[in-house]
C-alpha cells in the first residue's frame, strides 16, 4: 500500500549500545522538521524462537532499553517512528549479539542513559553502606558494655576492701608494741619502807631490846 504523505520518515542511525548478558540499549535519530510523538520497536531472535513488539507514544525519547534478553544470543531489531497520522516504515535491520555472564563490558561502553541499571547499582551501594553502619554501631555498643563491666568490677573491689577495713578488731588499734615484741604497759611501783633500828646510848649495850624494855627489866650493865 502507498504510504500516507503526512507520515514521518523512517528513523536513521539506529545503533545498539550498552551490550550486556541480558540487556542492551537501542538508540536512533529522527529527521528534523517531522512531528514524532512516539516509537515502535520490533525485536526478535535470529533463530526465530522469540519475537517482541514494543510501542510507546507521547514521548520524545530517542532510546530504549531492551530487557530479558537471552545470554550469548543473536538479535535483530527494527525501529519505527509514530506521527500524528500513523507510523513510518521500519528502519533497516540491525543485528547484535548479547554477552556472556563471564564477559566484561567493552572499554568504550558507558552506562549513561541506563537509568534502571544505575538505580540497581545505587541500591547495592546503599545496602553495603547500611551493613557497614550496622556493624560500626554494634562494635560501639560492645565497647561501651565492656567499659561499663570493667568500671563495675573496679567499684565492686573497692567496696569489698572498705568493708574489710571496717570489720577489723579494735585490738589492732591498741597499745603499740616495742621493737623487742613486748607491749608498753604502765607499771605502778609499790612504795618501799625501810625500817632501821637504832639503839640509844642509854639502852642496853648487850641486849637487842629497845630502851623502854630496859626500863621495865633490870639491865645487867647498869
Automatic annotation (TrEMBL):
CDD domains: FN3. Residues 8-101 form the Fibronectin type-III domain. Keywords: Glycoprotein, Membrane, Secreted, Transmembrane, Transmembrane helix. One of its GO terms (cellular component) is extracellular region. It is a single-pass membrane protein. The keyword Glycoprotein applies. The chain crosses the membrane at residues 131-149. It comes from the Eukaryota. GO terms for biological process: negative regulation of inflammatory response. InterPro entries: FN3_dom, FN3_sf, FNDC_type_III_4/5, Ig-like_fold. Residues 159-191 are annotated as: Disordered. It is found in: Membrane; Secreted. Residues 159-176 have a biased composition (Basic and acidic residues). Its main location: membrane. This is FNDC4 protein.
Amino acid at each position: 500500500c502507498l504510504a500516507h504523505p503526512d507520515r514521518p520518515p523512517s528513523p536513521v542511525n539506529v545503533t545498539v549500545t550498552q551490550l550486556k548478558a541480558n540487556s542492551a540499549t537501542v538508540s536512533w535519530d529522527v529527521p528534523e522538521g517531522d512531528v514524532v510523538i512516539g516509537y515502535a520497536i520490533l525485536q526478535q531472535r535470529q533463530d526465530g524462537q522469540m519475537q517482541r513488539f514494543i510501542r510507546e507514544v507521547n514521548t520524545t525519547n530517542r532510546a530504549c532499553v531492551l530487557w530479558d534478553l537471552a545470554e550469548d544470543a543473536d538479535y535483530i531489531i527494527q525501529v519505527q517512528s509514530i506521527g500524528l497520522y500513523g507510523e513510518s516504515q521500519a528502519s533497516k535491520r540491525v543485528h547484535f549479539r548479547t554477552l556472556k555472564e563471564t564477559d566484561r563490558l567493552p572499554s568504550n561502553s558507558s552506562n549513561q542513559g541506563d537509568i534502571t541499571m544505575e538505580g540497581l547499582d545505587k541500591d547495592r551501594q546503599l545496602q553495603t553502606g547500611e551493613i557497614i553502619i550496622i556493624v560500626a554501631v554494634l562494635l560501639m555498643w560492645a565497647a561501651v558494655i565492656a567499659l561499663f563491666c570493667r568500671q563495675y568490677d573496679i567499684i565492686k573491689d573497692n567496696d569489698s576492701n572498705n568493708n574489710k577495713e571496717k570489720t577489723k578488731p579494735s585490738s589492732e588499734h591498741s597499745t603499740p608494741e616495742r621493737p623487742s615484741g613486748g607491749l608498753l604497759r604502765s607499771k605502778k611501783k609499790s612504795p618501799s619502807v625501810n625500817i632501821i633500828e637504832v639503839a640509844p646510848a642509854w639502852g642496853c649495850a648487850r641486849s637487842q631490846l629497845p630502851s623502854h624494855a630496859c626500863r621495865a627489866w633490870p639491865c645487867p650493865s647498869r
